[in-house]
Amino acid sequence: MSRKASIPQPIDRVRKIIVAIDGPAGAGKSTIARHLARHFGLLNLETGAMYRAFALKALRAGLSLDDSAALEELAAQTDIRLESGDTENRVLLDCEDVTGLIRNQMVTDAASRVSQFPAIREWMVLRQQKLGAAGGVVMEGRDIGTVVFPHADAKIFLDAAPEVRGMRRFDQMGPKPAQQPEEVIRDLRERDRRDRNRANSPLRAAEDAVLLDSTNMTLEEAVKAAEEIVEKKLALRKLAAGPSTNSI
Ligand code: DC
After folding, report:
1. Confidence of residue 136 (pLDDT cuts 50, 70, 90)
2. What pLDDT band is residue 4 in, cutting at 50, 70 and 90?
3. What are phi and psi of 216, to 5 degrees?
4. If you measure from the C-alpha of residue 47 to the centroid of ligand 1, how many angstroms do you get, rounded to a whole number?
5. Is 17:111 a contact under the CB 8 Å cutoff?
6. pLDDT tens across 78-107, in order?
7. According to the per-residue pLDDT averaged within each range, which of 96-110, 168-182, 226-240 is highest?
8. DSSP labels for 182-243?
């Protein structure tokens, strides 16, 4: 029996997908996004890093983080770029590499505050939509499945109990942690409260997101579960696209 010459499978189906990962701070979004990006050959884009870079600029400018008009004006003069890297995104703020300057507590807190303003969110969302427009991305944040890419191919809402998230953060602080575990958990609860209760695009799961609660999972188990969620969505997508042209 002769086999028909096989036409290469268009990798577009895989490469052009958009995976949205949302969830609260410390749920493991970045780690899982990074693994998914590697596994499925996607670009990994951390939208939180964009809010952080903008917050850094506002702090440097000495702006009040409650002054919505001043922040909006600042955004109009700001350029933020993300470059997908192996371990984390490289973040360029007005062409300056600020990757190493945006993870401290002051910027973390400021990012959560500036992200409450609708004008800032609109500005960010437009940029994030442009970044992911060509597909082939896993994008993580708070509003990716609800606002930035409501038609994403796979949406995961990653959560875990605050105490567990806080302890994971604490463990990442190394041998000389700047805070006690209870302080880390307290800050995280405060950020959760702000992110979940803001009037604009509060943190919540999209209706069609798959909930993944990693409270009682190891990181490996959570990564595996996330991979399976995306695999399933891809299989459904393939079915919806009809039979492939290179069947024997
Ligand atoms: O994911 P992260 O911790 O780096 O995010 C920093 C802050 O940015 C977070 O407190 C809320 C905000 N954020 C947001 O409002 N929407 C996003 N898509 C990503 C982050």
Report:
1. very high
2. very low
3. -105, 25
4. 7
5. no
6. 999 999 877 888 999 999 999 999 999 899
7. 96-110
8. HHHHHHHHHHHHHHHH-SSS-S---TTPEEEE-TT--HHHHHHHHHHHHHHHHHHHHHHH-S
158 touches 29 (CB < 8 A): yes
Number of neighbouring beta carbons within 10 Å of residue 211: 12
Amino acid identity for residue 45 in this structure: L
Helix or strand holding residue 137 (H, E) = strand 137-141
Taking the domains of the chain in order of start, what are their residue ranges?
15-228
Out of 44, 99, 112, mutate this one to test ligand 1's pocket (max ligand atoms within 8 Å of CB): namely 112
pLDDT at residue 243, rounded to an integer: 56
Radius of gyration of the chain (CA): 19
Q: What is the average per-residue pLDDT within 135-161?
A: 96
Distance between terminal CA atoms of the chain? 10
Task: Give residue 248 CA to ligand 1 midpoint distance, Å.
Answer: 48
Closest CA to 223 of 141, 162, 158: 158
**Architecture in CATH for domain 15-228:** 3-Layer(aba) Sandwich (3.40)
pLDDT at 174: 86
